[in-house]
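ok here's Pentapeptide repeats family protein:
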Amino acid sequence: MSFLLPLSAVAAQTQLERTPLTLELLQERLSKPILREGNLTVDLREMVIDLRPENGSFRDAFYQLLRKELQKAGAKPLGLDLSYSVIQGDFIGSDLGLRTPLYAQAIAPIFTATEQAQLESLRLVCLQSLAMSNDKPLHVYALPNSKDCRSLLATDANSSGEINVFRGTLTLVNTRFNGQVHFLNTFFLQSVDAQNATFLQTTNWSEARFSRLVSFMNATFRQASNFQGSIFFDKANFKQVQFQEIADFYGSFFAQTANFNQALFKQLAKFNKVQWQSNTNFSDVRFANQVQFTKANFNQFLLLTEATFEQAVSFREAQFNQPINLHGASILNLADFSDASFAKNTFLNVSGLSFNSNQAKILGNLGQIGKMFCVTSLQGNQNILRNLGQNFRQQQQIADANQLEYTKQRLRLIELSQSLLRTNINSASINRLINLGFSATQADAIIKRRAIRMFRYSNEILTLADIDLETYNKLNNRLSFTEPLALGGWILQAWSLFALTLLLLLSGYGTNFWLAFGVGGVAIAYFGLLFWLVDRYRRLRPVVIIPTYYETVSILIGFSCLEFFSLLAIFRNAEQPWLTLGCLLLIIIPVPITLIVRLYQQGRYHDLMDVSYFTEDGTFRQLRLLIGRLPVIPRNSTFRERYMPLLSDRRWNWLNYYDFSLNNLVRLGFNDIRLRDQHLPGIIATLAWYQWSLGVLYITLILWTLSRTIPGLNLLIYLK
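and the structure:
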């Protein structure tokens, strides 16, 4: 009558029709193993296996008979298939393995050459883990302290340990375990397939070694699962697994890809001190409770895309050697990256990250964590950058908050440059589109589409039937998708681009004081040398007016020292030091050099030729902050009495030129040095006023930078 039932009912009825396993049936299946995927397998599928204490005689016979067949040395490995079966009572799977000693000198000879090579791989992993612990305390990684590793690495030839070796495949597809499951200290030489398996009680896989592919895809662990110190030599698939209680992978080792995609961790997840040698996939995972990656080692990419962290996640003292992808992830509580180690090219991709600084926190080392964050574009990520910046400002980590602001402005610079330099698809003519690479039909389709609604995103162009993916990939990087700009808007945007470029290159957008300090140092030394040159090297004939040898050597040594330390500050703090230096030289070299060349071309023929162009306030000497000072003395005769010419016959006179340059640029000096107002070549006055004008901009940049790098700084204290 089953043909009268719906298909789903028939499937459910078939699934529930399991055969109780008896000793006679077990002996029959053991005597007639089936061939599955080239491997001999004991077929115990779709059965009810009662291993409860009240059925003790059957339980003892079950283990004895299975152990006898599965542990046959030298024979072809025999697998075990428990798919679609129900296991009642505790399942002690480790008792089914061949218990064998592990020696430091050699693997037990009872195994085949292939199996011995697999067991030998355990020694290599132990050595690798030991090598990684050489520069760290031994407790950082758990593997060197495991029983089998201690045996394999022991120097004493008599030292040995034992391990349970499961030689054949283990298939647990849709198997239901009503009791506890124990596979501790078991070495699986073949694959383990536990897809859709259900574990109702605790499971113990501690110090298990999986030599081949292992799959727990879509399995359910209702109680605590223990994988402490386990080694996965091949790919490990935990996709869509549900861990409803504690999942403990403390000290495990994943040699190949580990896939936890779409898994669910309802309780605490422990991945402390785990070594991930290949890519690790936690995308679309939901962590409903705390998760710990403390002291973990990620050698390849860590994927956390669309993952949800509802409680705290800890990466304290973790080591990352490749980028971490948090694209679209949600951090709802706390993410702790304190004392984490990041390799040179490592970054945290936080594009589309869901993070509210008022409810959650991200912790990290001061001055380090802010540099790790990266987003692919400014569009759609301004809110996350703002929230991350606010997060670090609340923790008084101003350097990290400023680094995020710098990242934001760099992306804004890219956006502005693309808008100005690329072809705007919303305003380009049909001929321009054709010349760009579109066909006439495609260009016409674009014109018609933007007449209805302008393009805002690049992928909107793919909605046109005439645009294929190849054309999109070819031309996407040459198009912009912004509002069309009038001439005035284009000029304003170009000015914004220019100003933003200067701020980024010369001060890191007000986030790097030492970079701005280095820029100022280069300018001060350069202008100081120029002022000394025009004042002391005047002419060769008819009367020679040149500096002494000592003075020349002294000022060049001073110039070299100032430039060295200033350039050191630039190259240590600038992200692109050569661009920063090039930008600075374009500001300070062309105009002054042009003026000086013109000065020496036309010569100097004026009174007071043997008197310095520079004067100093002779009433007192002190370190002064002169915000309102101008570079030329006033006309009033009383000022001529106060301001006296520099004494060129003094050995320390060359210092005054650097003092004048310092006064002009940062309004700070040891003497109030200014230009005289009589018999002064206009070119020299122009040179001084040019530096003074740059000083107005520079002091503004310095004050702005200080206000952004020092919490709670009031700029007015600099103006008192």
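+1. The chain has a mean pLDDT of 86.
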